[in-house]
Amino acid sequence: MNLPSSPPPLVTVAMISRNMAEGLGECLAALLNQTLQDFEIVLVDDRSRDGTKERVESLKDPRIRYFRNEKALGYGATRNISLQPARGKYVFFTDADCLPAKDWLERGVAIYQAKRCIGVTGHTLPLRDSSKRSERRVVSFDGRFMTCNLSFTREILEALGGFDPAFDVGQEDVEFGLRAKREGEIAYAPKMVVYHRVEPYTLRRLFTDARRYKTQVMIFKRYPADEYHKRHSPPIVKGVFLKPEDWWIIFCPFLLLRSPANQSWHDFWLIPFVFLATLYRRLVIWATALRERILLI
User: pLDDT band at residue 235, thresholds of 50, 70 and 90?
Assistant: First the structure.
């Protein structure tokens, strides 16, 4: 695909997607209706098989530039591919299961113009409230590095070589943020808002989320003393204990029956699989810690 000959936009929205066509249309519609209109969208499809290409082409908007991997490469490598054609001075990241607020880009660019920062991280809220065990709720209101609502200057992304492809199942955003903040300020913008969909937990999602803890071990190996682990990182690290709350699930699983997260029959039905996913997560943590030669229990 040839690069457009028009002047480069101020902003590139870099997105990756794999089998997320269902919510992608609404996400792209929210982006196309931003108050700031000087942008392009670079979408890299990590070999989806759910009609993602057809969904994108149906929008018929020249601001969307669609690319597709010949084989699935994972998060870090695919995000790097999304950076290659990016022409904007500022690169914003969001995901197909998100709905950016109408002034999302405008708020973020305003932070760049007000501060000499290399990045901006925003405020992520669930599209609707939920405390059910069977529903996945994503929230960030404390400056976490999450690519559902994150931005960096193209200059710093290029200077640091982009994301680490070794982070193939997630946390490539956290690793890059920890690396980048050594070079300059990453500002927190509470008014730069993205709404994240609340989706039902499937068995596949439970075990996929457990597998992602291999990247948590990798991050802790690289940045063991970083304050981020105490303030932002989802798994709690206490000494050599990574996500110590797993232990009460393993040794006292009956307590899951008394949890306020049990609000429907599906919540109760999921409990045995939560237990198995917890065991799997511990195996992932131990195997990765052994490979990385770091003591984590």
Answer: low
